[in-house]
Each structure stands twice: as structure tokens, then as C-alpha cells.
Amino acid sequence: MKRYDLRSDTITKPTEGMRKAMYQAEVGDDVYREDPTTTRLEVLAAQLSGKEKALFISSGSMGNLISLYLNGGRSNEVLTSMNSHILHHEIGSVASIAGVLPIAIEAPRGVLSAANLQGKVKGGEYDMATTTLVEVENTIGGYCYPLENLEGIRDFADTHGLKVHMDGARIFNAQQAMGIPVKTYAKYADTLTFCLSKGLGCPVGSLLCGDEAFINKALTVRKILGGGMRQTGILAAAGLYALEHHVDRLNDDHRRAKAIAKALEESDWARVDMEGVQTNVIFFTVPGFNTNEVIKELAEVGILANHEGPIVRLVTNLDLSEEDSDEVCSLLKAFKPRKLS
Ligand SMILES: Cc1ncc(COP(=O)(O)O)c(C=O)c1O
Questions:
Q1: Distance from the CA of 334 to the center of ligand 1, in angstroms?
Q2: Looking at domain 249-334, what is its CATH homologous superfamily?
Q3: Backbone phi and psi for residue 51, each to the nearest 5 degrees, phi listed first
Q4: Which of 85, 109, 111, 170 has most ligand 1 atoms within 8 Å of CB, for mutation?
Q5: pTM higher than 0.90 for the full model?
Q6: Do the beta carbons of residue 243 and residue 44 sit within 8 Å?
Q7: In this model, does residue 339 exceed pLDDT 90?
Q8: How would you label 162-182 residue by residue, b for 16+ Cβ within 10 Å and e otherwise?
Q9: Is-contact 302 2, C-beta < 8 A?
């Protein structure tokens, strides 16, 4: 039985072309800043993000952590969405390592606006933490930030002397879905992280982008965190390959996600958030049925899904072809959940 792994877009394997680029990469010791391929990737990332400089890092979590460490600061507060990755999936490192207290803010679909931030900024009292940073995640749950929200947040941050960090793990999905260049999104943030190892299909790597002074400090914090790596050109070559060959094809993932969401909508057992399917992420519930069992029953027909509580998540990705996507739609149409909740 063929398996269709839709748990995440992180599960993809490097393509032949990418492996070849990795094999052929020119390398040097990047802790000495002598890896030419990594330097090329960092220059390209700076250009794409419209920032002065970029730094190759091991993961999206490391990018968020470095930005929170430098722009948040110990005993200060960061305003973040109730749904954010830093809050739920980075093991509290924002607090335990960066020393920043995250303040979770409720907002529709997790997308913050200046209105959500009103009244949340603290400081000036000896017994209070000071708010230093706003963190936004774009895309969040596959949903793209409207530019007017970012504009409002930037104005709000400037008014209150706050920095803005954008967790753009999937920012290229937003670029392709909305036709808004990464650098346009990035101009509302002081710092941006984007990931190569999600929709772009690389085995490892993220980029942290910001102004020169920030990236120079980030280099030191990366070392503190044990993130100085040596012949990183092998990994950076995968990133360069992905930025050349795998950005436009994100539209395929988005089209397939919409087709799968439609198949779910047409079923008599799933309730799907159609409006939320802007990129490659689909959320649905299975009212009246036990979600743990639904996940197992889907696996029995070859569909691997993730869930958090009652919400099931499917993510289209580079390893799911058009034929695979059609087959997933057929399997979902024929599927019947069995175990009642
Ligand atoms: C929105 C978001 N931010 C950050 C990360 C962290 O990335 P990494 O797994 O590379 O640490 C993820 C990972 O899935 C993510 O989805």
C-alpha cells in the first residue's frame, strides 16, 4: 500500500538535483567564515529579504531564539500570538534560554493586529517587566498575514519603542500565495527567520536576516548556542538549489491543498476550514468521532496526518505529486470514520 505522508512539509527527502548540488558544493570552515557556498546563500537571503545581512543557522527554532535573545532581553516581555510556534513548539526556550516572558495574545486565526496589542505594553514600574518585542508568524497555520495588519503592528511597535521579529518559517508560501515578495513582508519586521527545510524541501537549514549590527551579534549568539558549524557549504548548496528550483512549485502544493480540502468538504464526515486554506496547510475536525482513532484509521488507508486535540492537520509538500494528490482525494471521499467519541 502506498503511503501519503501529509504530517508536515518537513518530511521531504532531497531530490536528485539537490543531492548533486550538495555533492558538488565548494566548502570551507564556516566558523572561520570561510565557506564560499554559505556566503553566497547568506548574500542571496539578504537580497531576498531586503535586509543588510543574513546568517545561515541550523533551524527555525534557532533563528527565533537568537532574535528573542537579542531583541527581547532577559526579564523582558514579548507579545506573541496565542497560537505561535515559539509558545507551543520550542520547549519554552524563549523563557528558559532567552529569558523573555512570552505574553500570549488571542487573535482570529492567530493573526495579530495593532488592536490586539493595545494595552499590552508594560514598563516603567520597578516591579514590572518591560515589553521589548512583538513576534509575528507568517504564515501561521498556513494563513498569510494581511499587509495592513503588519503595517499597523509596525506603527504600534514604533510608537512604543518595540522591535518586531517575524517567524517566516513558511514566508515563501505566503509570497507565492499572495503575490507579495518576501522583502515586502520583511520590511515591517526588524528581523526575519525563514526555513529551507519546510516547503522548500532542504534537509537542514534556516536563515536569520536583519541589519548588520544585529547579524554581527547573532553570529556570537549562534556560537553560544552551539550552532557554529564547519563545512556548511554542503547544506547551503541545498538552500541555493531550493531557492532557484523550489519556490515557484510551492503553487503546486497550494493547489493540491485546496483540492484535498474540497474533497474533505464534500465528505459527510469532515468539517474543514476552507477559508483558512491559503497555502499548504489544511485543518479539519471529525465531529462525533474519536480523533486519535481517526488518525489511525486514516493511516490504515495510507494517509498519514497529524493532530492537536480534535483538530487534524494535513500539509501538502514536495514529495506529494499531482497523481498522489488525486489519489488522496479519492481515498478521503471513500473514507468512513468508525470509532465514535
Ligand atoms: C512556524 C514555525 N516556526 C518555526 C519552526 C521551527 O523550525 P525548526 O523545526 O527548523 O526548528 C517551525 C517548525 O515546524 C514552524 O512551523
A1: 33
A2: Aspartate Aminotransferase, domain 1 (3.90.1150.10)
A3: -100, 165
A4: 85
A5: yes
A6: yes
A7: no
A8: bbbbbbbbbbbbbbbbbebeb
A9: yes
